[in-house]
Amino acid sequence: MFDESLQQQVRDRFMYVDTCPYQGSRIFFENAGGALTLKSVVEVNTELAGIPDNQGRDNPASHELVRIISEARDNMRIFLGVSGGPVFTGESGTELIFRMVRAAALGSAPAGNMVGSTLEHPATASASRRWAEIAGKEYRAAVHDNDRAAITPEDYARVVDADTRVATLIHTSPVTGMTADVEAIVRTIRAVSPDCIIILDGIQHAAHGGLALDDYDIDGYAVSAYKVFSRHNYGFAWLSPRLATLPHDHLDGTPDDFWEMGTRDTSAFACTSKVIEYFDWLGSQFTDSSDRRERILAAGEAIHDHEHDLVRLMIDGDGTQKGLRDMPEVYLIGGHDNPAREGLCSIIVEGKPCAEVVAELNARGIRTHVRKADYFSGNILEPLGRPTCIRVSMCHYNTPAEVLTFLRELEDIVRMHAEANAA
Ligand SMILES: Cc1ncc(COP(=O)(O)O)c(C=O)c1O
Fold first, then answer.
1. Which CATH architecture fits 4-37+294-422?
2. Do the strands 220-224 and 235-239 form a parallel or antiparallel pair, or are they unpaired?
């Protein structure tokens, strides 16, 4: 866990860390719906919103915009851990994924199949189903393990074959919080289909840091800005040189690996640099290295350790407060001892509608979210026979005190529910 001084320095860097402008004081455990925004992001965004100039002109303002974009691209490469291939921005994580999947489906060898999994968000699942059909390829979904709420190399091995042209993989599930062993799954796919185009949805994982795309042996990776301390309305992605140069929509005369459509929003790039500078600053609290990549990796490790401790506290409680494990009325998706869990607990209070629990937590100043068995979460909730769950999603700026407050309030809600039932 971060020491108190560092925890405070971290929290001071974020907007609305403990208050909501519409509700007042609150604890924020809705990070999987959109993480807190850095104050530095808000500042640079405001500053650039007033600049009227366009890129590519010979004037001081335009030169500065081009410099900001170029610097941000370098920062994105360092953050993602990539040495080659373009990075580009688009409208949202979903839009970036659809474009990558479409190019892969249409540009890969004819026929064959495309593989995804039942753990995926509809961004990849819908894109793959749609473009597989148009491209004349069979779509197959690897079935995730219901008890562990995670996807494994063995699950992929059951559906991949030598004709698998495209595969998608979710890095971390935003519903169960389980992260995938990316390198092992990619090895499994490449062992039977070496040239498969592999696209990752990194949208839930990115805020947890430690990205190392060059190690993953993949072709595409998407990040959504509002999920990683920046603002809404853009995301960024990386492409391997071979995916980048497959036929795709772009303006005549632009390079073959150019994916951006029209004038760029310079502030999206500037905001991304602020996010990466934040990871850099956090890492510098843990290493003396003068290398930005090493500091970013150190930040990822520190975030991992802090969130791991928050999750442990959530599950096991401490001497003063019992955790989820000791609340028999509370069902935890994926189990109490799941090493794949990354900062998130999805729970159900047996016998009480999840929407009511979320509303009662809200009334007590704790923001969580109800996930329904709809097109976003039905793939996970339906096999469990559950119509809804309560997602409690944490981030490294959350504190042990917030976790303990949540547990205390949850325990009280459970007790009141039991009393009401007994009456
Ligand atoms: C894993 C995952 N993929 C895709 C998306 C969609 O991202 P966006 O809202 O940027 O389109 C989300 C958003 O919740 C997500 O969690």
1. Alpha-Beta Complex (3.90)
2. antiparallel
